[in-house]
Amino acid sequence: MTTTTAPAVPVPTGSKPGRNGAPRGAKVVKMLPLAPAITLMVIFLAGPILYCIYAAFTNMALTGTGAANVQFVGLDNFRKAFGSSAFTNSIWLTLVFTLISAIIGQNTLGLGLALLMRRSTKLVRNFVGTAVIGAWVLPEVVAAYLLSAFFNDDGTLNVILHKVGLPGQDWLYAAPIIAVSIANIWRGTAFSMLVYSAALSEVPKEIEESAEMDGAHGARKLIFVTLPMISRAIMTNLMLITLQTLSVFGLIYAMTRGGPGTKSQTLPLYMYEQAFSFSQIGYGTAIALVMLAIGAVFSLIYLRGLNSEAA
């Protein structure tokens, strides 16, 4: 038996084949249109991050010795941070704020509204969607002003409480972290509602009808049928709103400025105070890196959940 060998395909001179057999030169040519975008990302994204990492290990300041003579101080800024009660208090308040306003508040309320709109009339859907999305598109300063008027001593909340015979108080003074958490829920729930509305629209009605025929109704159908089918949307939504909430600054600053005292001073406000009020740029940047690390931890947790769902 005679075996016929196919002739070898010649490789163009000056280009080596890649792993899939395609010349590397061709891959480089395909990447050329992305070069401007990659360059801009390096300059405006990677560049500031690298500069912040450098600044976090120096005594950089807006005034004084750190402004005229920047010196490398190693881990001193991080030692100073973790040895400060104000810093640990800010971490605790940031986690509380994120848990209440994002993980519990926006996530749960957004899912509830999406389920409501899925089964309601067009009139109800239009009304709820307009009201919720209207709060989302408001500028942070406007939303902060409206919620301050709602929570202050002479605000709408106390008027309602007095009408039903309950005592009122200055909520921005008595429970500021709760007040700003509710404000963030009111402003940010629309995002979760839209994510879950899109996810629920992809759930086959045949599966839910089959579950109902098997005796799964109400909460049982939601827990054992609907939620597992949108689990990837849940993890994605949680990751996005958690990272967004960790960096909330304008809303809290406009409502309480981190006060009274430090009762609502989350990490972004503490970082701003140290870097720009006290002119300690190096120390403030070190706090920013800690915020970045906290966000990375949350991201890894959620990504691990997404990967387990995909497996």
Question: What would a concise description of this structure say?
Answer:
With 311 residues, the protein is mainly alpha-helical. The chain has helices spanning 24-31, 35-56, 65-68, 76-82, 85-119, 122-137, 140-151, 156-163, 171-174, 176-201, 205-213, 218-229, 231-246, 250-255, 267-277, 281-310.
Structural class estimated from helices and strands: mainly alpha
Residue ranges: pLDDT <50 for 5 or more in a row?
none
Q: Tally the helices: what do you get?
A: 16
The Cα radius of gyration reads: 27 Å
Distance from first to last alpha carbon: 48 Å
The proportion of residues forming helix, as a percent range, comes to: over 70%
Shape annotation: globular
Helix and strand succession? HHHHHHHHHHHHHHHH
Summarize the biggest pleated sheet.
Answer: none
Would you give an account of this structure?
The chain has 311 residues and is mostly helical. 73% of the residues lie in helices and 0% in strands. It contains 16 helices and no strands. The protein has helices at 24-31, 35-56, 65-68, 76-82, 85-119, 122-137, 140-151, 156-163, 171-174, 176-201, 205-213, 218-229, 231-246, 250-255, 267-277, 281-310. Helix 4 (76-82) crosses helix 16 and helix 15 packs antiparallel against helix 16. The longest helix has 35 residues, at 85-119. The radius of gyration is 27 Å and the shape is globular. The two termini are 48 Å apart.
